[in-house]
Amino acid sequence: MLLPPGLLELSPGLETLRDWLVRWGYGVIFGAMLLENAGLPLPGETVTLLGGFVAGSGQLHPLGVMAAAASGAVLGDNIGYWVGRRAGWGLILRVGGWLGQSPADLDKLRERFLRHAGKSVLLGRFVAVLRVIAGPMAGAVGMPYGRFFLCNLVGALLWSSTMVSLAWLGGRWIPLDRMVEGVVQFGLGALAVVATLLLLPRLFSLLERFTPADPSIPPLPRPASVASINSGLLKSRSEHDSAD
After folding, report:
1. Are 131 and 81 in contact (CB under 8 A)?
2. N or C: which end of the chain has fewer CB within 10 A?
3. 3-state SS, residue 88
4. At how many degrees (to 10) do helices 103-115 and 176-210 cross?
5. 88 touches 140 (CB < 8 A)
């Protein structure tokens, strides 16, 4: 598939990445995805999109780009999983402490992650930042390795095929710079939604704790406990029996 000349005009940074891809091919994609998913701040997503874009010009094969991206992602996530597994939950507690999270809050996060671990690993691939921390988190909370590997593999295949197909097909009509910007914005938007859902309960709790009560509204009467009701019934019955 030949791309229109106007769509091949790239920013200097993307131009450099494209030169690397043309020179070293699939190894650049594999290495970028491996290191990003192992925890290093590298633009693995951008490199994969660019690989699909280059494949559109016939210089790389789209299936080769998908395979390189998926295998690098799987291996990188496995490194993260075993780092988290070896470091244990203490690693999450230390990192959470630096971010101002209490152990109780982190325990709740752990329970939620375990309930949705498979979906977090599989679908988290499409969410910025979450795809990097999902591996260490899964290892730290003790997610079974077989289940992690399967979810990670399926997620990597879905993600790589989506990104490469988007760049390979959509690159015929959309400039790559704009496509990369759109994908990054989608990932950050998804991250904002996830973060909001996680932080809303804590925010409501803080608002209830620090919002002063309105003095014009009388407090609700406290309901009597079952024990006090039973005690009153027994006392009334005892007095009635004594009167008889």
Report:
1. no
2. C
3. coil
4. 130
5. yes
Strand, helix or coil for residue 39: coil
The answer to whether residues 143 and 114 touch, using CB atoms and an 8 Å cutoff, is yes
Supply 73's token pair.
Answer: 């992602």
Rounded to an integer, the average pLDDT of 128-146 is: 85
Q: Please calculate the CA angle 191-194-197 and round it to the nearest 5 degrees.
A: 150
Amino acid occupying residue 210? F
- Please tell me the pTM assigned to this model: 0.64
Q: How far apart are CA 53 and CA 180, in angstroms?
A: 11
Structure tokens at 208: 């209830």
Work out the number of other CB atoms within 10 angstroms of the CB of residue 29. Answer: 32
Q: Which of 34, 56, 14 is nearest to 173 (CA)?
A: 56
pLDDT of residue 131 exceeding 50, the answer is yes
Structure-token pair, residue 241: 């029996």
